[in-house]
């Protein structure tokens, strides 16, 4: 039988076989080298870990100003609160038991040290300023009612003094920020208005009302209070919106002006 014209000569087959053997050998050698290097790295890492000291000798370096401006911790806030409550001359009622006519704490915050004292300490020439807290107290149980700021020093023993650096006087009681007691008066006035104007609101706003509503309710927000400079009068502006998704773009054009003096909500007026 005649040989196929496409058959390779014997010498080509031998050359191909040799090349295949060389490639297989190179691959095997590469695998062996990779495994050895991996073992070497593992041994080196283990030796490094075993030689590390159990405790570092490095000590953190803190800036001298760190504690000057660090905010009050939870423990410090509680410490100041308890101190104020235990000073009988201040006659402060715990907030959870306070009414609008009680003396109670509104705010406790860090009082930054005097700039000159802080610079003198940081330059290394003066003692470190004593940490202090500024406590805002609504004094509704005194006459006349006022808002006072008191500095409490984390001294040994703790001490306090009136803080009049910014105002040089007590703050008028009617100019105090809104808290839950005043919000309760506002809500009562708006709800009373909602009851009295129920039928009118129903007709004006397509069934949307303030009180006794199901899925067509009017909700409200407040602007203010606006404290009058020369009187004890306060003004609040209540504005109403439909209580539906996208409430911010659902105003109904109804605004209610609330005017009052003092803390007796029955004497406040709406316009």
Could you describe the 3D structure shown?
Helices cover 32% and strands 24% of the residues. The radius of gyration is 39 Å and the shape is flat. Strand 6 and strand 7 (233-242) form a beta hairpin. The chain is α+β, with helices and mostly antiparallel strands and 271 residues long. It has helices at residues 10-51, 74-85, 115-122, 180-196, 198-204, and strands at residues 103-111, 132-139, 146-153, 159-162, 171-172, 218-227, 233-242, 251-261, 269-270. The N and C termini lie far apart (121 Å). InterPro entries: Cu_amine_oxidase_N-reg, Cu_amine_oxidase_N2. One of its GO terms (biological process) is amine metabolic process.
Short description:
The chain is an alpha+beta fold. Helix content is 32%, strand content 24%.
In total, the number of strands is: 9
Catalogue the unreliable spans.
Answer: none
Give the overall shape, derived from the CA principal axes. flat
Whole-number mean pLDDT: 81
Give the N-to-C terminal Cα separation: 121 Å
Rg value: 39 Å
- Look at the helices and sheets and give the structural class: alpha+beta
CATH fold naming of the largest domain = Nuclear Transport Factor 2, Chain: A
CATH architecture of the largest domain: Roll
Oligomer: single chain
GO molecular function: copper ion binding; primary methylamine oxidase activity; quinone binding
Protein name: Amiloride-sensitive amine oxidase [copper-containing]-like
Pfam family, one: Cu_amine_oxidN2
InterPro entries: Cu_amine_oxidase_N-reg, Cu_amine_oxidase_N2
């Amino acid at each position: 039988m005649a040989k196929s014209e496409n058959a390779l000569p014997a010498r080509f087959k031998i050359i191909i076989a040799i090349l295949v053997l060389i490639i297989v050998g190179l691959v095997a050698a590469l695998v062996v080298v990779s495994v050895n290097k991996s073992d070497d790295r593992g041994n080196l890492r283990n030796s490094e870990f075993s030689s590390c000291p159990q405790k570092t000798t490095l000590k953190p370096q803190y800036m001298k100003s760190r504690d000057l401006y660090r905010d009050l911790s939870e423990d410090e806030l509680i410490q100041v609160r308890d101190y104020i409550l235990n000073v009988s001359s201040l006659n402060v009622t715990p907030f959870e038991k306070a009414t609008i006519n009680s003396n109670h704490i509104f705010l406790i915050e860090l009082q930054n040290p005097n700039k000159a004292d802080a610079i003198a300490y940081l330059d290394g020439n003066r003692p470190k300023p004593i940490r202090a807290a500024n406590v805002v107290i609504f004094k509704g149980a005194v006459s006349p009612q006022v808002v006072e700021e008191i500095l409490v020093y984390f001294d040994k023993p703790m001490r306090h003094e009136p803080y009049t650096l910014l105002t040089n006087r007590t703050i008028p009681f009617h100019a105090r920020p809104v808290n839950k007691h005043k919000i309760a008066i506002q809500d009562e006035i708006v709800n009373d208005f909602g009851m009295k104007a129920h039928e009118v609101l129903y007709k004006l706003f397509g069934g949307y009302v303030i009180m006794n509503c199901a899925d067509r309710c009017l909700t409200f927000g407040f602007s203010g209070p606006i404290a009058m400079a020369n009187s004890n009068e306060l003004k609040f502006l209540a504005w109403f919106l439909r209580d539906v998704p996208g409430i911010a773009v659902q105003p109904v054009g109804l605004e209610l002006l609330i005017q009052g003096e003092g803390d007796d909500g029955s004497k406040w007026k709406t316009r």
